[in-house]
Amino acid sequence: MTVVGTSGAIPIPIPGTVFVALPDLPGNIGAFGLLKDSFTEVRVASRRDRAIAELTALGPGVCAAVVGVKERIGPGVLDALPGLRVLGSVGTGTDHLDLAALRERGVRVVTTPGVNSVSVAEHTMMMILALAKRALSGHRAALTGEDRAGMPEPPVELRGRCAGLLGAGATARALLPLLRAFGMEPLVWTRTPDNHPDLPTAGLEEVFRRSDVLSVHLPLADATRGLVGPRLLGLLPPGALVVNTARKEILDLAALPEAIAARPDLRFAVDDFGLSADGTAAALGSSALLSPHTAGVTAESLAAMQDSAVRQTIDLLRP
User: Fold this and answer.
1) For the whole prediction, is pTM greater than 0.85?
2) What is the predicted pLDDT for the residue at 11?
3) Are residues 131 and 240 in the same domain?
4) What is each CA distance from 240 to 51, 237, 269, in whole angstroms?
5) Which residues cross the membrane (predicted)?
6) What is the pLDDT confidence band of residue 9, given thresholds at 50, 70 and 90?
7) Which residues make Cβ contacts (< 8 Å) with residue 124, sequence separation at least 6?
């Protein structure tokens, strides 16, 4: 565990220890310097996989913590940290946090919604293009020497096709100009269409029926878990592309084999952790494009999210 003293730039630092679960955050000179100037003590995890153990070992002296999506914070962790007042999470999702337990203990939570929306939108567009242009099968065919004979399907054009978006948040909005640049016609489903009069919206089933490309941009919650399952996937046009850069659990994972057996023409791209370990990769098959939850963690967006989480954490504690 690394111990870092304060630079003394702030006359009256926030009393207590701030724990940083992200060993790479000290490389962000601005964000880390702000922590050192703002707290009496900064401690940084020696390794990511030791972060929770090192955090809980510090006990009541911790008044704030900055974590990422890999750190699961629940009652067991919180019971060891009775002095915790603010938890800053570098990222948008909160499914790694027990929000009810945090509320019960009076711990305020800050996240960084929208900060990485451009990064996720660009990654989504990359996945759409890779699926449409059959990049995976073309790459394999070129490597094996089969050339075009090794590609079971020809590439397709995106111009004039309908792109259905589930969600109308910052990422979906950042994706819209990219889709339109390729001549695609967007159609959006949101649970609150009246809040988005500027967007072309439609009902959930209509979006599925019309979408040559379906892109998922929803938070994981009880209402969205398993939302995209065999019934809705069965409504998609022939050869549709399904891209999920949100949480994988928005897909009905248990029913994926059934859905794919019924619609083998569909092509999937998913960005999340643990796709091999939980069987999702095997269920999707070799034609799927997968990435390990990297859509929102470009160098630029990661630094911006760290900056945001650190500043919000300090602002909530500053007298």
Assistant:
1) yes
2) 52
3) yes
4) 42, 6, 11
5) none
6) very low
7) 171, 175, 178, 215, 217, 243, 245, 295
The CATH number assigned to the domain holding 55 equals 3.40.50.720
As a whole number, mean pLDDT of residues 100-116 equals 97
pLDDT(90) > 50: yes
Whether 136 and 246 share a structural domain: yes
DSSP 153: S
Phi, psi of 214 (to 5 degrees): -120, 125
pLDDT of residue 2: 54
* C-alpha span between 41 and 96 (Å, rounded): 26
Q: Let me know whether 139 and 287 are in one domain.
A: yes
Count of structural domains within the chain? 2
Does residue 194 register a pLDDT over 50? Answer: yes
Residue 239 identity (one-letter amino acid): G
Instruction: Write out the residue range of the structural domain in which residue 53 sits.
Output: 2-115+299-317
Q: Give CA–CA dist 319/306, Å, rounded.
A: 22
Q: Tokens for 246, please give them.
A: 């949100």
